[in-house]
Amino acid sequence: MNIRSQIAMVFHLDKCIGCHTCSIACKNIWTDRKGAEYMWWNNVETKPGTGYPTKWEDQETYKGGWEKNGDTVSLKGTGKFKGLKNIFHNPYMPVLDDYYEPWTYKYQDLFTAPEGDDQPIARPVSLVTGEPIEIKSGPNWDDDLGGSPDFARKDVNMEKLTPEQEAMFQLERMTFHYLPRICNHCLNPACVASCPSGALYKRGEDGVVLINQERCRAWRMCVTACPYKKSYYNWHTGKSEKCVLCYPRLESGQAPACFHSCVGRIRYLGVLLYDADKIEAVASCKEEELVDRHIDIYVDPFDPAVIEAATANGIAMSTIEAAQKSPVYKFVKLWKLALPLHPEYRTLPNLFYVPALLPGMASVQDGIYNSTTKSLWGGIDTTRLPMKYLASLFSAGNTEKVADVLKKLMAVRMHRRGVTVGDLKADEISQAMKETNLSGNTADEIFRLTSLATFDDRFVIPPAHREESIEMLENTADVKGNTGFGFKETPARGL
Ligand code: SF4
Ligand code: SF4
Q1: Where would you tag: which of 47, 55, 366, 369 has the fewest CB atoms within 10 A of its CB?
Q2: How many Å lie between the centroid of ligand 1 and the Cα of residue 353?
Q3: What is the reported pTM?
Q4: Nearest to 340 by CA among 328, 331, 353
Q5: Where does 1-100+137-354+458-489 sit in CATH, by number?
Q6: Residue 236 C-alpha to ligand 2 middle, in angstroms?
Q7: What are the boundaries of each domain within the chain?
Q8: What is the pLDDT of residues 17-54, one digit of tens each?
Q9: Are 94 and 229 in contact (CB under 8 A)?
C-alpha cells in the first residue's frame, strides 16, 4: 500500500439551482484579468446541452484524456510523439469560437448619450478587439434549455441514445438538470502527463493540480490533454492557467470560493486517502469496471493498516482524522451515492456527482405525467431523462450504476416521508430499504448531510501541511515514457 491523501469533492445535483453564483465568485477572485476574460474555471452547464467550450465531451474532435493500451494507458492527443508532430499546429485545440468571444458593454453611453425620445443603450464591445460585436454565444448560452432542441440535440451524450429516446424532446417530456464543473484534480491527470516543460504538478500533501507559471512555455498540450477542458491558455501572459482549488483559502482552513458561496449548498469537500500503487491498473482496466475500481482505490481511513501505511508515508494524523470525518468519503465510498463524471476518460477525477433524482422521478406512463413516488421504481426505464443518458455522463454507459444511486435516493425519501408524513405503506418503505440495502439510521444520516448540513459538516478541511510536501507527477510524461504514474519513483513524504 502506498497511501496518499487527496482533497476530493462531491456536488449534489438535485440541489443545484443553476444560479451561477459559484462561477461569479470564482471569476471575481481569479479570472477577472486581461487574457483570462473568456475563462470560467467554474462553469455551470445545462444538461442536455453542448456545454462550455462547445461540445467539450467530443473526444473525437478534442482528443482529450487517456486511451487504453493493453495493460496501460496513453494520452489520446498529446504525449511524446503525438505532441511533437503537432508542435506548430495543434488541430485538437479549442479555439475562441468554441469558448466564446468575451464582451463587455459601453456603459458610459448610458450617461453620455444626447437627450432624445429613446432610452439610451449600452452596446456590447469585444473584450479582445475593443470593437462593437454581435453576441452569438456565451459560456452558458443554452442555459435552462435555451435554444433547444437545437443545442440539447447536439449534446454529445445524445449520440448513444436510440431513436425512441428522442421522445424526450417532446415538449411535455422535456427536462434538464444543471452540471457545475471545475477541475477534477485527477489522480491520473492527463494535463500533468502531457506537459513537455514539466510545468504542471500535483501537490503531494493534498493532490491539488497546479501550473508553475515560471516553467510554462505555452505549448498548450494541457489544453488538449484535459478531457474536461479545464486548462486554459492566457493569451496576454502566454501561459496556461487552471483552477487552483483556492489553495490559499484551503491552507487557511477556508472552503474554495465556489464552495463557500454556493447558494444551493450542493458542494462537499474533504480528504480521501487512496492507494497510489493501484492507479495504473485502475486507469487501464476494462471500461465496465472503471467506476467500481476507481471507488475501490480510496481506502478506509479507520483501518489500522491504512493508518500505519499513511503515517509511514508522512501523512499527518490531523489529515487522517480529517479523512475520517470526510463527507466525501461517506457519499462516495460508504453510501455509494456519488459517481465520477465521464470515468471513461481514465483520468480518475476527484469530483463526484450525486445524480439528480428530480428529473428522473417524474415519468410519463401511458401518456400520463406521473410524479408519484411509486412511479420511479416501476418506471426507471421511462424516466424523462433516460437512464442511458445519465449513464453516459456518470458511469461509462453502465445504466445499473445510475439506477442503483437513484433507487437509494428514492428509498431515503420514502423513509423520511414515512417518518414525517406517514402516508406511505410501511411494507413499501421497508421493501425499498431492503432492496437498496439501507438501514433507517443510514437513511437518516444521508438525509441530514443532504438537507441539514452546516458549513463544518460540508467542508472538512485538514490543517495545511506544506512543510511536508513533495510534488508528485512532475516530469513524468515525456521523461519517463508517456504515462502519468511517475510518483511511484518519488521518495516517501517527509524524507
Ligand atoms: S480535470 Fe484533470 S486533467 Fe483536467 S486540468 Fe484538472 S487535473 Fe488536469
Ligand atoms: S452556486 Fe451552487 S446552486 Fe448556484 S449554480 Fe453554483 S453549484 Fe449550483
Answers
A1: 366
A2: 16
A3: 0.91
A4: 353
A5: 3.30.70.20
A6: 29
A7: 1-100+137-354+458-489
A8: 999 999 999 999 999 999 999 999 999 999 999 999 99
A9: yes
